[in-house]
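subagent[fold] <- orchestrator: predict structure for attached chain, return tokens only, no commentary.
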Amino acid sequence: MPFDSLLEAVADARKTIIIYTPTDAGTELAERFSTRNAFVLVRQSPAAVPAGFVVVRDGDEFLGALALEDLLSFLAPTVHPPWELGETDSGYRAIFDLLDDTLFVSLDRRQLLATSREIEDRAWRVGRGTLRAGFQRRRAFERQREMYRELAATTDLDVHVYLRADTVDDDFDPGPLTLHTAPADTVGRYWFLLFDGGGDALQACGLVAEEYSPDRYRGFWTYDPTLVATATDSLP
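subagent[fold] -> orchestrator:
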């Protein structure tokens, strides 16, 4: 299934995000989430939880809750190399867990980079399997090149990199990475990162996002091994 069909399939499912806040800040947060494929409600937080919190539902099913400050962490993430992620990023990880398989229709590069770090961190901790990363632009890969070489050199991960064919010179040396090239209308449109779990389906995860205007993306991340495999099968 091509990436555009995957995005449409994920868009059919909408979650509900309920923001409990003690101030009017909830309205602003709701507006920021209005561009996601999710229903967003704002409620007055109860006196027992004055700092506020967020509840995520899928229909009538309660998926989980997290502190309001964790939601703020998601909207303005701190980006670290995967081996430097620690407890300070637990808030971002919490909402990452709750909102998988949700189509986000307005992500920027910083949010995608932070989400990519979560996937790279999981691959690094597993230490085996195949990690596939697509770069729309050669300069984006060059900024991450040493980090991916470090992943390949310090683990048993098989790291594959996808670049536009018209950006790769004959003398390009991928080092320990496996290089794939593709036409600009395929790899050039998407930011993707797919990890097969290294033999453990529970560890599989992935991110697929399409740039629809400069620095604005729509996409999703997932822990569903079937969805990860489907996305992987669509690669050139």
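orchestrator: received. Logging for downstream: The chain is about 35% helix and 30% strand. The helical segments are 3-11, 25-33, 68-75, 90-98, 109-126, 138-154, 225-233.
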